[in-house]
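Exercise (ungraded).
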Amino acid sequence: MADDTIIQVIDLYKAFGAKAVLTGANLTITRGESMVVIGGSGSGKSVLIKHMIGLLKPDAGRVIVDGKEVGALNETDLNDLRRKFGMLFQGAALFDSLTIGENVGFALKEHTSLPRRDREKIVTEKLDMVGLYNVENLKPAELSGGMKKRAGLARAIAMEPEIILYDEPTTGLDPVMCDQINELIISLQKKIGATTVTITHDMVSANKIADTIAMLLDGKFAAVGKPDEVFASKIPEVMEFCYIGKVLRETEAIYKRN
Amino acid sequence: MSLISSLGAQIIWAATATGKAMIFTWDIFRWIFRPPFRIRAVFEQMQEIGYYSVPVVAITALSTGGVLALQSFIGFKRFGAETMVGTVVAISMTRELGPVLTGIIVAGRAGSAMAAELGTMKVTEQIDALYTLSADPVKYLIVPRFLAATIMLPVLVIVADSVGILGGAGIGVGTLGANPIIYMQKTFEFLKLNDIFSGLFKSMVFGAIIGVVCCYQGFYTEGGAEGVGKATTRSVVISSILILIVDYVLTAILFGEAPGGG
């Protein structure tokens, strides 16, 4: 494994009952890169990133993060490894019973010995970074969908993780909010310097945030490469899926020329 | 599907679920003794499961005690044993009705809420989120609920026993015209400490059953809102049935008195 590889997925198989979801997926993610995994609904994108953070165990194959095989770690080591991660869930997955401030500061409270005042300062700072102000004492139910995603993002970056996983960050948001979230993902990657893995079927978002795009098809990666390379793929399913992306690229190019 | 394969599928399902539930229970016990202890969360759950159940437990016990006095009076009058009403109410409440009724009420009131809350957390990925934050959900969510249910059930049974006996006395003295002093004397004359303790011990076991079953159902919920509904129903049905079965077994093995011997 090259030194700058941070996540490596090797020949990963996973089935749920009779339904095979991943059938020999291979992927290498470099440190600091923004990897976007695309694919249709039910193609196993979520299953893939859940293997990276150890929420699922492979049926066969391995996922190696920072030199450690995720599926083979014991509880303590897995918990240590998970601290390298921040994850934004599709529905934000904020804890209903806690305030936004407690949600964002959860890991700080559990895993650091920082005094309360310092924790609160970090919480406010992270909320500022995602553009939320004075929401510390609100409950998640009082926020809109977009605000919840931002709060979820603030929670994911609270411990300044090396790797951020985004599970469909723009799904269910209006176009303006989508764009704001995309900008946020890009700016956070720059500020924190984290490796990001985003799964999405939103090609506008993929086009905007990806250094590398990987397309899952029938449980394997059908195309992996820079956005332009993937958009130029001759595989029919990939062409169909990436059509919008290609159009966007071409339009951008025309704009730039003029 | 043929009869045999459908039967086989059900047996496999039941065996898998039992195995998973046992691992789940083992996990709970493993985390109970591992610091840091979340005392505050336990107290919050004790309030939720115990304190807020007091009114409904008390109302049920009051009416049960009263009806019991009324019914046994009707029966006992036929062979002239009316004075024994207080004794029967006290023994029935402490040994049997207090623990079982409280168990089933708490399963319905607090157990269903536990299953629904945990189930919602599961389907909205909040439980996965706990894992990603390096926090074990069994320790954070399940252990406090399990401990609270196991501790609070006996406390609620003490309430139920007392209120039930008072309810019986109310009807006995107020409606049936018993002498209050004789009624209370008869209530405690034959009541043994073992009657009360056996009921309290059983209720502790019922509390543990509610904790494990309802948390398990919530924790393994799948399939969105519909799944949460089903898990909630299952949690109440399974824990109530288990309470009834375990009640018989415990009574027969631990607290029975040999027929004829005494």
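Further reading is listed at the end of the chapter. For now, observe: The CA atoms of residues 130 and 184 of chain A lie 7 Å apart. Chain A touches chain B through 24 residues (CB under 8 Å).
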